[in-house]
Amino acid sequence: MTALPLALTMGEPAGIGAEITCKAWQALRTSGPAFLFLGDPEALQGIPTRRIEAPEEAVGVFQQALPVLTQRLPSPPCLGHPDPANAGAVIGSIRTAVQHALDGRIAGVVTNPIQKSVLTAAGFQHPGHTEFLGELAGTGQPPVMLLACPGLRVVPVTVHMALAAAARSLTTAMILDQGRVVAAALRRDFGIARPRIAIAGLNPHAGEAGTMGREDIEVVAPAIAALVHEGIDARGPLPADTMFTPRARASYDCALCMYHDQALIPVKTLDMDGGVNVTLGLRIVRTSPDHGTALDIAGKGQAEAGSLIAALRLAAEIAQSRARSTP
Fold it and tell me: Is residue 286 part of an annotated ligand binding site?
């Protein structure tokens, strides 16, 4: 067990968060990493729980019961049917977890999936977790979303926007800024001394010398040249249809992609149940499972906890890597 626990937020109470939390504790109770649940203990069924008053108590009880820092729900959850009345508790769970991480009382934050439409209806002003965490624990630059599974790490430069809007919004500065964040994170969080970054082209065949669009020549290539000039091992723009083969993946440590599906399709194809979402560019460690709230199967006992277990393990590994890199 690590010296400090991780904190796992409640996520959407009507989704599969409580179910996969219980399954994750059952899988990790003897090996760790130790974590506490920041939510309503009444939502946890079928496992022993222990209410604690402070994060520091979690490691000592983890093998016997899941430690819970209580965050009560105003409305009893109805599985499969989110209630905006609980939005404040969901947001409060995230805020509290982040504050404990900033205070050095936990090793990192792992977030259960949230239902963004419900939070938005209740007045939440952020597109999702990543942007909210950037407000709470950012470093002055936009946070970066990395998706990881065994054998592949990817970063989408543009994330949750229409494809046409993603192409219009893409700039050399965006690619350059994210390339810098990724290179620094690979060194600090993953212990890779000389990270190699493969950068995808926007267009088919990376534009094929401008015959399929000039964005790869005029927008992507200058960012790569600037990264190389700064001493970062960046290569591209590469055709996205060939850069995710097994041989290609072995040649780099992270792929920087131009839009959401270009990055997420290969990760989810390789390991749908074990993918992990990592937020780079924060003052804290944050990971999450790479799936949503799964309202359609909530309460049916069908939820797979593999991605959450992978997220907890990776958060602990990143925390340890950061500790080793700190003078």
Answer: yes
